[in-house]
Each structure stands twice: as structure tokens, then as C-alpha cells.
Specification:
By secondary structure, this protein is of the alpha/beta class. Helix content is 17%, strand content 26%. The protein starts with 7 loop residues before the first strand and ends with a helix. The mean pLDDT is 94.
Length: 321
């Protein structure tokens, strides 16, 4: 079935990242958007940096507030601060003696209690999930980012981790992927640091231009918190940098936050579903969200993102629709 003919269901997502062992503020503190209770949604996405240093005790506050959130499905990845969740980092930095910490850290996130609370800890790759609404979506996730100090889930900036033929786990091309969640941003999109330098991954941007998902969410660069809607344009064969299947960025629109609504709703609220004023056009547009809750000064003052977006119905639902 052509992508344009797929039946969809409007689905509500809550996106957060870079909480660094910090819990939401008390519900009474209405001057902060990141406060209890988190908004009720269908899916919660956490794009990594669950802790400060990966100490096992640091995961407890994060897993507690995610478990308490009202969401049917809660998908979680690690980030560069979550040292004990990166087996390669642990082996390298502890002369081969850190395997036990990684096993224990993963046990925390994959325990029976975590699963019962709807939490699914994901490692790099592709997964498909079905919701009670009948929505069935495919997500690509990766906790990796270009080299950043001596921390977890790093790769050399010259390495292409996301595109064939060299990728470890390449991002599939359109129309295979609905959502991409990575810890780090793509090059040129919500990736600017305080010294006015863009530090996102160019290989990731290439992969996203092939996949053209409905949503790409991430964190890592605290000071570039925000959302941007990108319209893709086909690249002509005569254009410099042409690669088959890769499109180029056309129109870009930065989302403006309504601060009063954000405080009231405990999240920045965006609606790009089919009943919205400007529905997102799958295959032609991608919504990018940098959901870092922490500011550059490492204060949890940036709001989560609540997104209403279309996700495809499962095949059986398609047949009946």
C-alpha cells in the first residue's frame, strides 16, 4: 500500500531527554513546566542521559518518575552520561573488569517492575510496537553520538554509523521508519552549542534525509532545546553531493513556545495530526525535537514536549478501515 494511502490514528507522545537523575518538580511548583504529574500520553520517549555518571543508584529517580507517568508505552535509550549502560566503555575504562556494572545497570532498566510499568529499554536498532488504539509504528533508536569527551556511546566524527555500507545498524530508508530517537542531534538541526558551533552528526543527517520519518527526537545539546519542522526536497542528480534516495532540506520552521500554555499543560504542546491546522505530511516533512530538560547550566528548567502526530494503523486495522 502506498504511504499516502495508509490509514492512521492520531497518537499523543511525550518527549523528554537529559534528565540526569533529576525528578520533576512537585505539582505545587507551577512556575516550572517539568513537574508532577507528567502529562497523560499514549507514548513516552526518553532520549537518553538518564543519569549523571551512570552510578547504579542514579537510575532510581529516573525510573521512578517514568514508571509513575501515565503512558501505555515508555521507550528509553541511554546517553553519553550513562556510563554503566555502555559495555564497551566499561570494558575499556576498567581493564575488562566493568562487565558486572553493565549487567546490573541493564537489569534495572529491564526488570519485571520496569516492564510492568510499561518501560522498554532499547539498544541501537529497529523495533516495532502496537498500541491498544491499533497504531503500529516502527522506531529506530541509537544512544550514540560523535566523540564527546571520554564518555559513553561515542564514535569518531569521521565514522558513518547510520548509512550503508559501513553502518553498524543502518537506518532503513523511507517508508520503513515512523520515528527516530537518538541521543545526539543531526548536523545543522537544533545542535548549536554556546560557542555558536554546530556539533551534530552529518552522517545522521544523511540517514534522516533517506528515512524521512514523521519524527526525529533527541537531546544531548542542552542549549539547543526546541522543535523544528523541516520540509524535504528531492535532490537533482546534477546537484553536488547527490546520493540516490537522499533528499535535501527545503523550508524550515522553528516552533514558537506559548509559555503560559506550557506552564499550564506541563509541556510544550504541538499538534501536527490530521485534524490540526497544518497536518504533517509523511515523506515530505519531519518534525525534529530536541527535548533536553536540562539547560546549559544543568538546571531542569526546560519543558517536555507533548506532540499529537499520526501513526499508521496495524495491517489488520488497515484491511478493516
Amino acid at each position: 500500500m502506498a504511504a499516502s494511502m495508509l490509514k492512521t490514528v492520531t497518537t499523543r507522545l511525550l518527549i523528554i531527554s537529559d534528565t540526569h537523575s533529576t525528578s520533576p518538580f512537585p505539582s505545587s511548583l507551577k512556575t516550572h513546566a517539568f513537574r508532577h504529574p507528567l502529562p497523560r500520553t499514549d507514548i513516552l520517549l526518553h532520549a537518553g542521559d538518564l543519569s549523571l555518571t551512570g552510578a547504579l543508584a542514579e537510575y532510581s529517580p529516573t525510573i521512578s518518575f517514568i514508571a509513575a507517568a501515565h503512558a501505555e508505552l515508555k521507550l528509553v535509550i541511554a546517553g553519553n552520561h550513562d556510563l554503566t549502560l555502555d559495555a564497551d566503555f566499561q570494558q575499556r575504562e576498567s581493564n575488562g573488569k566493568g562487565e558486572g556494572d553493565t549487567i546490573e545497570a541493564k537489569k534495572i532498566w529491564t526488570s519485571e517492575a520496569a516492564r510492568a510499568a510499561g518501560i522498554v529499554y532499547l539498544e541501537e536498532g529497529v523495533r516495532t510496537f502496537t498500541l491498544k488504539s491499533g497504531a503500529r509504528f516502527t522506531i529506530y533508536v541509537s544512544p550514540y553520538q560523535p566523540e564527546f569527551c571520554n564518555m559513553a556511546f561515542n564514535y569518531p566524527r569521521s565514522q558513518d554509523r547510520f548509512n550503508p555500507p559501513s553502518a553498524f545498524t543502518p537506518i532503513p530508508s523511507f517508508p520503513a521508519i515512523d520515528v527516530v530517537m537518538t541521543h545526539g542531534p543531526p548536523r545543522g538541526i537544533l545542535d548549536k552549542v554556546t560557542r555558536n558551533e554546530r556539533v551534530g552528526c552529518p552522517h545522521l543527517l544523511r540517514a534522516i534525509s533517506r528515512a524521512r520519518p514523521r519524527l526525529h527526537c533527541f537531546g544531548h545539546i542542552h542549549e539547543s532545546w526546541g522543535a523544528e519542522r523541516v520540509r524535504w526536497e528531492e535532490r537533482g542528480e546534477e546537484e553536488a553531493g547527490y546520493r540516490e534516495g537522499e533528499w535535501k532540506i527545503g523550508k524550515r520552521e522553528r516552533f514558537e513556545n506559548d509559555s503560559e500554555e506550557t506552564l499550564r499543560e506541563r509541556a510544550v504542546c504541538m499538534d501536527v495530526g490530521r485534524e490540526s491546522r497544518e497536518p504533517l505530511v509523511w515523506g515530505q516533512e519531519t518534525l525534529f525535537v530536541n527535548a533536553s530538560v536540562m539547560t546549559w547550566e544543568s538546571q531542569p528548567l526546560q519543558a517536555p514536549w507533548r506532540i499529537d502526530i499520526e501513526l499508521p494503523l496495524a495491517a489488520t486495522e488497515q484491511a478493516e478501515a
